[in-house]
Structure formats: C-alpha cells, structure tokens
Specification:
By secondary structure, this protein is an all-alpha fold. The protein is built from 59 helices and four strands. A two-stranded antiparallel ribbon has the order 1-2. It has a two-stranded antiparallel ribbon with strand order 3-4. The longest helix is centred in the middle third of the chain and has 28 residues.
C-alpha cells in the first residue's frame, strides 16, 4: 500500500494527536448608555461569545458604579432602569425568577463547559449584589436574585462552579464571592436558607479552603486566593447564621481542619479576620453550647494558632488602617487567652484545684474517723502517694496544648501559660511531671533566664480557695506531692538551687533568692490553710501539714548556706542584701524548726545595718532598701536568744534598742517604719520596760512625744539609753518603786491600774543628769519632752493618779522649782481611733479636737418618668393586614423562621371580625403547607397551628382572641424552631395533652412555676421565657382581668422573694408591672388587689444598688400618677398617699 500523502510546509504530520492549548481570549465590551441597551446585551444568546460580550459590558458598568459611587449617578440610574425592566411579575402559581436571561446563559455555558462564561456570570452577580448591599432601595432586588440562586437549578450551577478543578481559580473565587455577598445581604436575611442548601452552596468548601496562594511573595489583597475567598465566606456564615445552623457548620470536621491547617501562611489581614470572627461569634457567643465550641477549639486548632507566635509580618504596603491594628502575634495571644481561660469557651473545664481527677476528697477512707487518725493515718488513704509520676487532670485538652508552648523563649507564651495555670491550678504539677526537658541547671543564658522567669511566675500564683474544693475544706487534704509541686515546682531541685549560689553570678543567686522567698511565703499560706481545715492537733490535716514541711525540707538548701550567702554579699549590693535578709526572716517564721538548728548570731550584721541606716540621708532608694533590710534583721533578732538589745558597742554611741528608737523617730519621713515600731514594742514588752498587758499602749506614748520634739539633744538620747538599759537589767527594782509611789499617793494596787516601769527609771536617773550640769536648755528640753510623755501616757490609759505621782517624782529629781513648774500634764491629748487597736498595729496620736462625724454627701437622684419609660417600657408587637397575602409565596422554612406565621397569628387580635376570620383561614392553610413539606419540625408546628385554629374557631366571631393565647402561639413557634430550647419537651407534652386550649387559662404557667425544670440548671431560663410571654400577653383591660383571675401578680411578687434571682429577671417583672400601669384601671387593680405599693417599697428597702432603689421609687410614683387618686384615697383612707410621699 502506498504511503499516505504528507501535508505541511516543513515537517510532516507526526501521526499522534496533538494537545490543544486552551486559549483564553480577552472578552470584548462596549459602553452602556441606557437600561434598554443593557437588557438587549444580556438577552439569552446561543452564541456564547455574544453572551460574554454582554456580561463584560455589564461588569464594566458595575465596576464604574463601585469605583465612582458618589460621582456618577447616571450609571446607577441605568442599573435601576434595567432592574425594573427585568423584574418578574408576582404570580402566586410560579416562583419568580430574577435575571432569567443571565440564568439561562449560565446554564447553557455549564452544559457546554464554557468556563469563561461560567466565571463571567459569577463575577457579574457578585458585583451586582455588592452594589445592592450598599443601597437600601435595591435590597428587594438583591433578595430576589438571592432567592433565585437558591432554586434547585441555580443551586446545581453553583455546585458545578464550586467543584471545578483545582487550577480553575477564576471560576471558584468569583462563585465564593457571590455566595459571601448573598449571605451578607440585608444583614444576613438569607443566611439560613443558603446554609440549608449546603449540599450545593457549601460544595467542596473544605477542598477550596485548602487551595492557598502558591505564588512568590505576599498575596495581593486585590486578587485574593481561593482559600481567602472561601474563608471569608465561611466567616461571614459564622457571623450571620442562627444558633442551630452555626452548630451544624462547626460540626464539619473537614472544614474546621482545613481552616486551621495553613493559617500560619495566610496574609495578616486574613488571620485577623479569622481570629476576630472566632472570638466574637464562637468563643463569646453565650448561646452556643460548649460542645459546639470545642469542635473548632480542639487541640489541633489551638496548636496551629499557637504557631502564630513569632509570625513575621511584611513591612511593605502597610496602609494607615493596618498601622493602628495589633500585630498577628498580639491577636493570637488575645485569642488564646480568651479561649483557654474563659470557662464559657468550652476549652477549660471545671476542675478541683489540687485534687487530681478521680479523687473523692469527701469520702471517708479507712483509718480516718471524723478527721481523726485512728489507724495508719494519712498512709491509709490509698491515693495520697500515687501521683509522683503522673497527675490525672480533667482538662486533658489544655494539658496536651500547653506541652507544645515555649514560654522560656517568648514572653507572651509565658503569660499565656501562667494565666492557664492560674485558672486551672490542676495543670501545674501535671505540666512539670511531663516536661522532662525543663532544666533549671544555671547556665546564665537567655533560655535559663526564661526558665527562671516562668518558675517565678508559677510560684507566685495564689493557692485556690479550699485547695480547689467546691465549698469549704474537704474531709481529706490534697496529695502532698501535688501541693508541693505547686509551691516549689519539680525543676527547682536542691542541686540546681545550690548551684545558683555556687557560681559567681549575681543574677543567678538573685533569682534563686527570690524563688525561695516566694516558695516560703506560699508554704506559709498552705500551712495556714491546713490549720484552718484542721479540727484538732491529731487530725489528718495536721499530719498532712507536717509531711508537707518534711518534704519541703528536702527540696531547699539549709539555712547555714543561706547565712553564708548573705554574709558574703557586697555591702553596696543593697537589692540582694534586702532580698537575702527577707529570705532569712521567712526561714525563721515559716519553718523555725529548720532555722533554729543553726546558731546564728545576728548582732554583728544588725549593728552594721543600723550604722548604714543612721548614716543615710533623705528618702533615696539606698536609704529605703537599707531600712527594709534593717526591719528584716530586727525581726530575725526577735528569734535569736543571744541578741543583746541594750549592750552598747564600742563604736556605737547608743545601744541597738535606743538606736532603733531614734531611727524610728527621726528617719520616718517617707519611709515605712511600722515594723520597727512593732519590734520596739516587742522588745520593751519582753524586757519589762512597759507593762505587758492587753490594754497597755507600750512605747507609743514615748515615741509620740519624741516625734513632736524637734532635734532632740544627744544628751537626752544618752539619758534615755541609760534609763532603758537599767530598766531592762533590773526590772524588779522599778516594779517595787511603782508600788511605793502608789502607796505614797494612797492608791490601792488594783489589777486595772496601768503603770510604766520606764517612768520610774527616768525619775530615779533624772537627778544624776541634773547633777552633771548638762546645760539649762537641755533640762528645759527634757522637761518639755517629759511633759508630752506624761500627757500622751494619760491619753493612752495610764492611771491618772500614777501619772500625777510620777510627775511629783520627776519634779523632785530636777531639784529646780522653775523646771519642775514646766512639767505640765495636758488632758487635751488623745489617741486617734487607729491607736485604740492592738499594740502590734501602727498607732498615732492627735490633739483632741472633738469627734469628727462623717457626713453622707451622696445626693439623692430621682428617675424621671421619661427615664423610667425608656428603661421599662416595651413596645407592643403588632401586625399589618398585608400579612394576609405575603405568606403565600414563601417556602415553609421562611414561614416559621422569618415570622410570617406569627404575623398571621397576631391578626387574630384585630378589632375587625373579617380580618380575624381571614387570618384563621390562612393559618389553617399555612399549617397544611408546612405539614406537607420537608421542614424538620413540620409535625409539631402543624399541631400547634391546628390546635390554635380549633381553639379560636368559635371565639373570633365574638371579639378579638385573648392576648394570652395569641402570645403563647407566637412564643411557642420560637420554641419549636429550636429543639435544644429548655421548654421544648414541656411544650410538646402540652400540645399532645389535648386538641383545644382553654381561653381563660394561661398555658404552661403552672407547669413552669410548680414543676422542676426539664434540664438541670434551666429553671431561670424557663422563668425568663415565662416572663417575656406574660409581658407580651398583657395588652387590654380583659388581660388585666385574666391576670387577676389566675393570680398572676401574686405569683410574680412571690417569685422575687428568691434571693438568687438575677437583676435581669427582676427587671422583667418590673416591666410587667409598668405595662399594667399603662392599661386603663391597671394601676387601681395593682394597688387595691395586689398591694403593689407595699411590695415595691419593700423591694426598694431590700435593694443594695442605688439605681435599683431609685427604679422602685419611680415605679411607685408611676402607680400613683396613673391611678384614680380619689378612689384610692377613699379606699386606703389616705394611707397610700402617705406611703408614696
């Protein structure tokens, strides 16, 4: 056979089928000048090139309207003319189709697989809805177009576009924008119907969310990727969908996973949108159940969001709007804080603090009888020692999430982790049990500093009330290991802490000192809580406390090491010295058994610090730190048996006690010397300088006298130092002198006579001072000081006869009549109220200028009638006659959920019999339409509507249907729309109990008020529904009569006696009362039949909030203004008028 002839100029046919490249020709277009021209361009054409030409022309027109919205109104008028010309006719038999030619073109392009036209239609429709969303007068056209898109034929076209191949972004993205505009149109009016068609409208959404931008650089905001458009469509749906639809959407695992999978690679603007929407529409949505929230806030999602820490944002192309916006890291941090710490978010579950999951702290274990140890004691509790390797927790999701955080490398992650620990204390011990890589071995690196900062914040956390038990302390203490793990976490080993002091670094030693200080403070609080929970010294709580202290011993350095560290500190390192002295003090105060093992002589360090404080001037930082160190050492000295308070050192002018007294008086400006005063009082008590009795004011009269004396001479300080030393050395001698003085004054030695040994010492030694010729000015100053001392002592409660005897004793010692005459006792000196407290508190003295009475300057504000109306008045919902015709073209779902059925029901209260009868007929038709549909609650809705029809059939000819029945039917429809409603079960039981409702009864009121709630914790939700139902039922005088007959107001007034009833529910009751006052005769009935005035005044007196009090008072005035005063005055014989006034 001959070869086939070859065609072609150069090279022949290869014999294989050549691949044809799809060439995307740019579309042609023309300018549009009239609406008629636009209609002709968009007319259905078999030639898709012409169709594309018309669509492109329409797109150019819409772009011009969007870009020049305020400048070019001609283009908008062209669009209006076009829309008016293609508006479908209202036909009851056919469903209207908007833009039929465009829809036909779209259908044909899909059949022929013409991708250019498929994309062009979606682009044009998205732009058209965008234009309409900003124009109120175009909203009806937009809703019509969206309803057309929801017809079955158009749904299939949307699904075809959405399921296009992965590379067809030019088809998928416009379709997603179209759906987003449809969802957002008119405030989400059609969000519900669009979601109900999710098999088509949400087609391939998870796949589309995964189609992210793969180009170089940053995604262009003007050309968003498929993922960006898909996510924005999803977020808009979450914002606008009703509760049930939102719950169903969040249950789509593939969509949730796709949303979070590539969030770290998304542009900043999209990340902000995701986090803001999830926070406002999911986390903070109190109506959304926790089970629904946890579907999106799972461990995978939290981990992906945590990856945004350290997100690097592009710096270029940052406009002014974005410049004021928080960074991605800040937004992610705020989101995680809200999600992980708010119990309503669903992530954090309620827990029991230091009691692990599975432990029953109130169960009586073997060996424990009424809290007393009878057998093996705390060892008889089987779970007390089983949590050293792992601590089971309730918050397993959070426990898994926090393990991936790196708090040592990021301060915000540190803050997040610590906040989670604060709200869920059970996680602390469990976290460090599993975090084996956490090493506190000091290396002075940034990582170690991060470790130390985290441990500092963790140890600083407070202990939960009752160790996390629900109410009061449990019968059994929490496991020792868990408590200890919260006080001193596992990484803080004895070896690591000791090494912090051994290496030559001020930073590591300072961190170790501060951590140990916090741990000891927290241990002190834990031991105090154990003592509060303990009923006797032999209780299981006391044994747990002893075991806790023993275990704590093994984890911290010995006090000898701390003393060595403190002694080795540089004298100029004031910050570390103050911190170390505070740590030593806590050793003595919290664990004295360990501290007293070391024979620590604090005297040298105390004297050195006293010198430093005495030499400092002013209120500089160095002076303040030195004073704090001194206070700590003085308190430590209280525990030292070898401390010599009155021994004068060779290089010190006075004894330590007198030096401290002088510092307390002279160095008090701007410094807190309350601790020094307490120490001085304690030393004076211990060494019998003053009487040790509860009503004795100790040294405070002397301190007060020294404070008012300016620049006390050194000779006087030496005199005081000599007196306190002698009194402390031989206190018995001066006690006997007191008895002698009392006998001379003829005073019997009674138990309630307050005296002072130090005064006797001064009286004895003053003659020696006068004999040493100190100078006349010194003696005058001393006389003035002693006068003030005696006066303040008298004011402090020292016996007056003793004061007079002491004055004579001192005057004799001066040996000079002039000086003796200067010793005057003023009875006008008194302690301030603070000084009448215990001596351990800081006391001050003030001149007696009379009692100062506090005046209540709070002015009384009254709520005006206008303000009361704004607060309590609720408008009455009515329906227009047009509701009789609007429902016919609506699908069953919209009849119930959009309120068309409720509008028909309200017409049964019309004053016109013809409207009532027509409304009743239409309600029967609506019920039949809903029953024959696929609506999910069609049976229950049909039953409610038909029972309403049967109940009203014989009554509507006589007059309007009672408001109670109308309101109940409308509120009942709202309940049936939500199967999770707290009254869903009770309403269905009511509907199945009988075919007709009694018109003179109030449905469900008895069941709600007398029976328990269907769901646990739903009582107040049921009450809230009942109150809103009763408010809507109260419209006419007949309603007032029915409320009177069924004793509604008595039940409402009794309901407010519940102390746990919230303010919102109380406000609802007040709104019902206010509504009654707006009805003719309502105020008279409330006053005469229900005692409303007395009830309101009683509620006012019991209220704690000032605004609430004024509201009750204003409502009383409202009752008085709206009633028949003459009749009420005669009925009450003027009593109501007097109460109101």
């Amino acid at each position: 056979m001959a070869k086939r002839k070859s065609y072609g100029a150069e090279g022949g046919h290869s014999g294989k089928k050549q691949k044809t490249a799809h060439v995307h020709e740019p579309p042609t277009s023309e300018d549009i000048y009239t609406g008629r021209q636009l209609r002709q361009l968009l007319a259905f054409e078999q030639d898709l090139r012409k169709a594309r030409h018309g669509l492109q022309s329409f797109k150019n027109l819409l772009d011009g309207i969007i870009n020049d919205e305020d400048k070019d109104s001609e283009k908008l008028q062209i669009l209006l003319d076009f829309l008016e010309s293609v508006k479908p006719r209202e036909d009851d038999d056919e469903v209207p189709v908007y833009l039929p030619d465009v829809m036909e073109t779209w259908s044909m392009a899909t059949q022929l697989n013409n991708e250019n036209v498929m994309s062009a239609v979606a682009v044009v429709l998205a732009l058209l809805l965008k234009v309409m969303s900003g124009k109120v007068d175009l909203a009806s056209y937009g809703l019509g177009i969206c309803r057309t898109l929801l017809q079955k034929r158009q749904q299939e076209l949307l699904a075809k576009n959405l399921s296009a191949d992965n590379g067809k972004d030019f088809i998928i993205s416009p379709t997603l924008r179209l759906l987003r505009e449809a969802v957002c149109l008119d405030g989400g009016a059609l969000a519900g119907p669009i979601f109900r068609a999710r098999s088509n409208t949400f087609k391939s959404l998870a796949r589309n969310i995964g189609l992210r931008y793969l180009g170089e650089g940053v995604e262009d905001p003007k050309r968003p990727s498929v993922r960006t458009n898909a996510i924005r469509f999803l977020l808009s749906s979450l914002k606008l969908l009703h509760l049930e639809a939102k719950r169903d959407l969040l249950s789509q695992k593939d969509i949730v996973a796709a949303l979070m999978r590539h969030i770290r690679k998304d542009p900043p603007s999209l990340i902000h949108e995701i986090l803001d929407t999830l926070r406002t529409s999911v986390i903070l949505d109190k109506k959304l159940s926790k089970d629904s929230k946890i579907r999106i806030l799972n461990a995978h999602s939290l981990i992906r969001i945590a990856e945004l820490y350290g997100y690097s944002e592009p710096t270029e192309d940052c406009n002014d709007e974005e410049s004021g916006r928080p960074s991605v890291e800040e937004s992610a941090h705020a989101f995680l804080l809200a999600a992980c710490t708010n119990s309503d978010a669903g992530v954090r579950r309620s827990e029991h603090g230091y009691y692990p999951e599975g432990v029953q702290p109130d169960a009586i274990p073997l060996g424990i009888n009424d809290g007393q140890i009878t057998g093996f004691g705390i060892d008889s509790i089987p779970w007390m020692s089983k949590f050293e390797d792992d601590v089971p927790v309730r918050n397993t999701l959070l426990a898994e999430f926090i393990q991936i955080l790196r708090p040592w490398s990021n301060t915000r992650q540190n803050e997040l982790l610590v906040t989670i620990f604060e709200t869920s204390p059970e996680l602390v011990a469990q976290y460090f049990c599993h975090k084996k890589s956490f090493s506190f071995d000091p290396k002075l690196t940034a990582t170690w500093i991060g470790y130390a900062a985290l441990l500092y914040n963790v140890v600083q956390l407070p202990i939960p009330s009752w160790f996390g038990h629900a109410k009061d302390y449990a019968r059994v203490p929490p496991p020792t290991f868990v408590v200890l793990g919260n006080i001193i976490p596992l990484p803080m080993t004895l070896k690591a802490i000791t090494r912090c002091f051994s290496i030559k670094s001020k930073l590591t030693s300072f961190y170790a000192i501060r951590l140990l200080t916090l741990a000891l403070e927290k241990l002190g609080r834990a031991l105090e809580m154990h003592r509060e929970a303990s009923s006797s010294p032999n209780s299981v709580w006391e044994e747990a406390a002893r075991r806790l202290v023993d275990e704590f011993y093994q984890r911290i350095p010995d006090i000898k090491d701390m003393i060595k560290c403190y002694v080795g500190l540089d004298q100029d390192d004031l910050l570390q010295r103050q911190a170390a002295s505070r740590l030593l003090l806590l050793y003595y105060e919290v664990i004295p058994q360990l501290a007293l093992r070391a024979k620590f002589d604090v005297s040298p360090m105390l004297l050195s610090t006293i010198k430093k404080v005495a030499a400092s001037e002013g209120t500089s930082e160095e002076a303040v730190m030195s004073l704090l160190e001194l206070e700590n050492l003085c308190t430590v000295a209280k525990y030292s048996p070898n401390m010599r308070w009155f021994a004068r050192a060779s290089d010190m002018p006075h004894s330590p006690f007198t030096t401290l007294l002088r510092l307390s008086v002279e160095k008090s400006s701007g410094m807190s010397n309350e601790s020094l005063n307490n120490i001085l009082h304690w030393v004076a008590n211990e060494h019998q300088l003053v009487e040790s009795r509860p009503d004795s004011r100790g040294l405070y009269p002397l301190i007060a006298a020294l404070k008012i004396a300016e620049n006390t001479d050194t000779t006087i300080w030496a005199f005081l130092d000599n007196c306190v030393e002698r009194c402390a050395r031989t206190p018995v001698k001066y006690v006997e002198m007191i008895e002698e003085q009392l006998e001379k004054a003829g005073i019997s030695d009674q138990d309630d006579t307050i005296t002072c040994p130090l005064m006797m010492t001064m009286g004895e030694q003053i003659s020696y001072l006068a004999a040493s010729s100190p100078g006349e000015n010194v003696l005058k100053e001393l006389a003035k000081l002693l006068s003030a001392y005696l006066s303040y002592s008298l004011a402090a409660g020292v016996s007056k006869p003793f004061i007079n005897a002491t004055r004579e004793f001192l005057a004799t010692g001066f040996g000079d009549a002039k000086l003796a005459a200067k010793l005057r006792i003023s009875e006008k000196q008194k302690f301030a109220p603070a000084a009448q407290q215990t001596p351990d508190e800081h006391n001050t003295l003030i001149p007696d200028n009379g009692a100062v009475d506090g005046l209540d300057n709070e002015t009384t504000h009254h709520i005006t009638p206008e303000e009361l109306e704004q607060k309590l008045a609720v408008p009455i919902t009515t329906s227009k006659d047009s509701a009789l015709s609007k429902w016919a073209s609506k699908p069953p779902e919209e009849l119930v959920e959009e309120g068309y059925a409720s509008s028909l029901i309200r017409l049964l209260s019309s004053d016109h019999a013809s409207i009532r009868k027509e409304a009743l007929t239409n309600i029967a038709k609506v019920a039949a339409k809903i029953k024959d549909s696929a609506y999910e609650n069609n049976e229950q809705v049909w039953l409610l509507l038909m029972e309403l029809v049967e109940s009203a059939r014989d009554a509507i000819s006589d007059g309007p249907l009672p408001s109670v029945i109308v309101a109940f039917a409308c509120k009942g429809l709202e309940v049936l729309m939500n199967p999770l409603h707290c009254l869903y079960e009770k309403l269905n039981l009511f509907l199945t109990s009988g075919p007709v409702w009694s018109l003179d009864r109030i449905p469900l009121m008895q069941h709600i008020l007398t029976e328990g709630p269907t769901d646990d914790g739903a009582f107040y939700s049921e009450i809230s529904w009942l109150l809103s139902f009763l408010l809507e039922s109260l419209r006419t005088t007949d309603d007032i009569a029915l409320f009177h007959k069924r004793k509604v107001f008595e039940r409402l007034f009794a309901l407010t006696a519940n102390p746990f009833m919230g303010p919102n529910l109380r406000t609802q009751v007040l709104r019902i009362v206010y509504r009654a006052t707006s009805i003719k005769g309502g105020s008279d009935t409330l006053i005469t039949r229900f005692g409303a005035v007395s009830w309101l005044l009683a509620q006012r007196d019991n209220a704690t909030d000032a605004v609430e009090k004024r509201t009750y008072q204003a409502l009383v005035a409202r009752l008085w203004d709206a009633c028949d005063r003459k009749r009420i005055e005669e009925w009450s014989k003027g009593g109501v008028g007097r109460l109101v006034e």
